[in-house]
Amino acid sequence: MPRLFGHRLSIPAAIGLAIIALNLGAALFAPWIAPYDQADIVGDAWDDPSLAHPLGLDNLGRDLLTRLLFGARMSIGLSLLITSTSFTIGIVTGFTAAVCKGWVDMALSRAVDLMLSMPTLIFAFIVLSVLGTDLPVLIITLACLDSTRVFRLSRALAMGIAALEYVEVAKLRGEGLGWIIAREILPAARAPLIAEFGLRFSFAFLFVAALSFLGLGVQPPDADWGSMVRDYRDMINLDLAAPLWPAGAIALLTVGVNFVVDWLLSIQSRTHGENA
Amino acid sequence: MNDTILEVRNLRVEARSDAGPGPVLVADASFSLRRGDVLGLIGESGAGKSTIGLAMLGYTRPGCAITGGQVVFKGRDILTLSADERRALRGPGIAYIAQSAAASFNPAMTLMEQVCEIPIRHGVMSPTAARAAAIALFRELELPDPETFGNRYPHQVSGGQLQRAMAAMAMAARPDILIFDEPTTALDVTTQVEVLAAFRKLIREHGTAAIYITHDLAVVAQIADDIMVLRHGNTIEHGPAAQILENPQQDYTKLLVAERVHGHTFLAQDSEADIPLLSLKDVVASYTTLLRVIDGVSLEVRKGDTLAVVGESGSGKSTLARVITGLLPREQGEVRFRGDLLPPALAQRSRDQLRRIQMIYQMPDVALNPHQTLRDIIGRPIGFYFNRSRRDIDARVRELLRMMDLPEDFIFRKPAELSGGQKQRVGIARALAAEPDLIICDEVTSALDQLVGEEILRLLKRLQDELGIAYLFITHDLGLVKRLANKVTVMLKGQMVANGETETVFAPPFHPYTELLLSSVPEMRRDWLDDVLSRRG
Lengths: 276, 537
Known about the structure:
The complex is a heterodimer.
Chain A: E1 3-4, E2 7-8, H1 11-33, H2 64-100, H3 102-116, H4 120-131, H5 135-162, H6 165-173, H7 177-213, H8 225-232, H9 244-269
Helix pairs in contact in A: 1-2, 1-9, 2-3, 2-5, 2-7, 3-5, 4-5, 5-7, 7-8, 7-9, 8-9
Chain B: E1 4-17, E2 20-34, E3 38-42, H1 49-55, E4 64-73, E5 76-77, H2 83-89, E6 94-97, H3 101-104, H4 111-121, H5 127-140, H6 146-149, H7 159-171, E7 177-181, H8 189-206, E8 209-214, H9 217-223, E9 226-231, E10 234-240, H10 241-246, H11 251-261, E11 278-285, E12 294-301, E13 306-310, H12 317-325, E14 332-337, E15 340-341, H13 351-356, E16 357-360, H14 364-367, H15 374-386, H16 390-403, H17 420-433, E17 438-442, H18 450-467, E18 470-475, H19 478-484, E19 487-492, E20 495-501, H20 502-505, H21 512-519, H22 528-536
Parallel strand pairs in B: 3-8, 3-9, 6-7, 7-8, 13-18, 13-19, 16-17, 17-18
Antiparallel strand pairs in B: 1-2, 1-4, 4-5, 9-10, 11-12, 11-14, 14-15, 19-20
């Protein structure tokens, strides 16, 4: 079996990695591999699959395969941006709370509790209705909402690590907060955070899809898998496969990511002697 | 009649890895145990003591396997039994008492439930009989309120009581053999005496045979009839306790015995510097939930001094270190360093003030960041305080490693690739890298083997002679104090009960608590425990 991070890959993990690679490839190279542009109208609405259009056409007569490839670009790109931003915010605030303790911790934790007490979807709904649905607004809003959960995890992790003597040594030396967070605590917390990243990536992905489905996410004519499901959903009654393609793509990528996450979690819980 | 109850012949245990057989952990160990006999297994960590202890239960740690020999218990070879037969044996046949009682009890069950579990599960006793037997055992082990003691949860009793409760648990099913695996190592000296006495009484009264595993010869001297000295899995010497202690044949045994006996030599430091390096005056400190953990402590350390702060756990020794370093701001009193008042909190101190006081910790495993190489660990203080170039830092780190008697190419290793003693040396190197005036040593040898700890102390002594650093030793090892420190402060419940030159403090007339501490240090006499107990009445 091939190895990654010095550990043997399990079969599901290998499958998961293949799925992720496929999706990333589609996302990166969409403009080159897609036969048409995502907004091009190339025929009649709901034309059947043919050689020129392997998956058929959509409600406006756009090529479905093209929309699916561009959709990967938007959906995955968005989720990655949202998750990275939310991790940056969550880790910095969470570690700061754990290292500083006292009122800093109290203020940050209560603010997070307040945000967690509101249903995320409703909260996102309100913010996006007020501020509009530009991509930067969408990314920052969702990242902030998501970062509350990252904050909880990183604070708990850092609490345990900050109690270790080597962190005390750094404090006694007079090191600043930045050094303690980046050099002393982060390396020890890396493994669980990476696993959490995969998990939260899946959630961000589903969340964007849900918002698009409700019309508050990605705006037309940009393709994304969530809005594609919304646009095509009625066709399920007419025995058309159109809504199944984007829905299947969402499901496949989520499963793939989770395969890899499961494997990351399992190597993390393994003891050192058994990873040979 | 032959009353041999356990016979071990040519026991061999090897580590197994994916690649095939690994190092031999125990090679050809043979011994026999008669009813009522106590065999002491002694050696450094890694000598194979615990591995032998576990093999008596037919068990090995994951990754190890018993590859040869026989363990014959009452005529049956344990190693050839099926898993079920072995399970029936554990508890009523052979019982095991582990080092850390706190880790071996289920925190969610009362002590009584856990003590009674084995006899009831094995069907040896009815629940009522088991309870009665447990209470009788609690009484024999001199636990407080034996009738109700069992209703408590593990966190509601002290470490020494928990260790005795574990002995009760092991005895509950009336086993023929008890295996004690370092049962007193985690305890204070004063508690250790009580627990040791309780164990010995239990073994004698029930006529149980026992294997007592420890690294402390003085402890084993109190309890064992025979002693087996192990090193790297090999049996070095095996014989009656008196013979091993008084007339050891092998060099290694002689070294072990000598290590424990020697000491009591004082090093007189002339401390004539005008201003004390560190002086504390009426210092008081509290935690938010615990008031006056340090209550009115005054002391002085001069250049080249070694001041030992002694006391049992909970006496405020480590808190004192936290107050001096500023991790715990003091409430009242003065802490002066080279005549200047030190700000109470860490954040208010200057970089230079921080640099001049360094710490070495008890557990080198958690005191070194496992994700950094030694270059980063030792080099960071140099870069941080002295702003040197990368090349200068490298050169200085190599020089420090040489001073620690460590190979220079360790510079790229991470802590996990070092042994316990080597890690502790790295801890010292890191402290020295800051070129401090005072090093606070918090129980620096208590997590190490005797001989390794001895080397660390010798190293610290040498560094003091070369560099004139002052040490503040926090310790409960009085043997160490007598040998290394020229000044002693004895603490009890946050207050100083004695303070001064070592000769004065450890010479009559004692403070009653100093006397209790002194008399609790195990001595290499067979009858020491009896003496202490009879003197205390």
